[in-house]
Structure prediction request, 102 residues.
Amino acid sequence: MKATLSFVIQATLSLLSFGLIARWYVYPRLRERSLREALTPLLLLQTFRTLGLLFLVPGLVDATLPAAFVIPEAVGDLLAVVLAFAALVAVRVQDVGDPVSG
Prediction:
């Protein structure tokens, strides 16, 4: 089996699995919560996207992997983590007079 076909099958089945988990388990529980309570676990999940930085470790990935892929991928994942933490702070901070926050 070609490597590309193997990757496509793996990605497709993983997406199907995660979609079913989200539909059957995650969505019903998040639907019952306030927006603030529902966003918190979703944002916390995004704070684990630090694995993209491993592309920058010398010798960990193939040296022939183009820098045009490696650097934007690592920086993009790092930016996603920083934004997730910023969003968590914004979601979790309660303003005293704000009727929306709970």
